[in-house]
Amino acid sequence: MLPTPVAVDSKLPWVGTTIFTVMSKLATDYGAINLSQGFPDFQAEPALFEATLRAMQEGRNQYPPMAGVSELRTAIADKVEALYGARYDVDQEITVTAGATQAIFTAIAAFVRGGDEVIVFEPVYDSYVPAIETVGGRAVYAQLEFPDYRPDWNQVRSLITPRTRMIIINSPHNPTGSLLDGEDLAVLAELTSDTDIVLLSDEVYEHIVFDGARHASLAGHRELASRSIVVSSFGKTYHITGWKIGYVLGAAELMTEFRKVHQFNVFTVNTPCQLGIAEYMQLASRHLGLAAFYQQKRDFFREQMKGSRFELLPCRGTYFQLARYAGISELSDREFARWMTCEAGVAVIPVSVFYRDGRDDRVVRFCFAKQDATLVAAGEKLRRL
Ligand code: PMP
Ligand code: GLN
């Protein structure tokens, strides 16, 4: 190990390694079934790989345009219009990003200045607050209350100040699986009208909503769309989390600012994967079928959990299932997640990591984006606890 003479003076003194990396490593070290970090354990379709390989072989291997190849931006514009009825301009209002994480970081860096306040909802996805603090902003916390995890808009109203620069929303919500609906968007529109608040809407699970619900995209709400950066990720939609490709939508004036940062952050995203996805997306059933596909997985996993002592919470979207374990153990959720991984053979995510003060409702998160055989094997272990 190389010693450094530098006094580091961390910008993020309270931040360690992300829980997803920690739990996946622990799962590997202990040979546990990994239902912690959110990724599928099954393959994407060969047609996606073939389209990507063809792009490589045809020589599409140099820098694409900074905002992404036009084939992919056009496919995104078409999809968004078909689903949400809004036509984003291919040249000025859509940018391809290196996954949603980069999109979120870049949007925050583009709009949040030192001392600005950004409202987030707890439990909060783990990348938002470190991004806010890296650029000198201050996170202000609204609560999604256990067990329904619905926003309290009166609380949000009370948190808005002249310093509020951004509100970050996430629906379908990770880790809770809750959804915002049209009424939520109407209140949000009322709360933000006549302000300079930018909305950052993390919609990476836009295609994974259950029981006939419709995803309420900010892209589909004209007033909100005009002040929003909407983020999505192909990793979730096409079972390729390791490709790290997503995109953002936003009004041209907002997108101009986003791109000022994006071009010096990643500049652009690898060409052949963009072209492969653009071709693969042409068949709309590939994203439209995702809700039914994951609803079947959700129900199958819940079936496996029957007869266990876990208490399952509602799951209206995403590929995560929350469960209370108070009937099994009195350990804190972090200790319980560790024990589950090391002793019980199933790795999970403790939900308290998504709270600034470590609030612990004795709830853990399971990822059910897994082959049925994996869910059966996990169920056998879970029912024994
Ligand atoms: N936001 C949420 C809510 C997520 O769950 C994830 C990843 N699972 C991301 C952002 C990051 O997506 P990506 O892998 O495309 O960076
Ligand atoms: N979003 C994924 C999850 O919630 C993890 C992504 C990551 O590891 N950064 O599990």
Key terms for this structure?
about 375 residues; alpha/beta; Aspartate Aminotransferase, domain 1; Aspartate Aminotransferase, domain 2; 2 domains; 7-stranded mixed β-sheet; 4-stranded antiparallel β-sheet; 15 helices; about 15% strand; globular; binds 4'-deoxy-4'-aminopyridoxal-5'-phosphate; binds glutamine; pyridoxal phosphate binding; transferase; pyridoxal phosphate; Kynurenine-oxoglutarate_AT; Aminotransferase_I/II_large
Give your account of this protein's structure.
By secondary structure, the chain is an alpha/beta fold. It folds into two domains: 19-44 and 288-383, Aspartate Aminotransferase, domain 1 (Alpha-Beta Complex), CATH 3.90.1150; 46-285, Type I PLP-dependent aspartate aminotransferase-like (Major domain) (Aspartate Aminotransferase, domain 2, 3-Layer(aba) Sandwich), CATH 3.40.640.10. Helices cover 40% and strands 15% of the residues. The chain contains 15 helices and 13 strands. A seven-stranded mixed sheet has the order 2-8-7-6-5-3-4, with helices on both faces. Strands 9-10-13-12 form a four-stranded antiparallel sheet. Strand 5, helix 7 (182-192) and strand 6 form a beta-alpha-beta unit. Helix 1 runs parallel beside helix 14 (333-344), helix 3 packs parallel to helix 11 (271-280) and helix 13 packs parallel to helix 15. The longest helix is centred in the C-terminal third of the chain and has 16 residues, at 290-305. The radius of gyration is 21 Å and the shape is globular. The mean pLDDT is 97. The protein binds 4'-deoxy-4'-aminopyridoxal-5'-phosphate and glutamine.
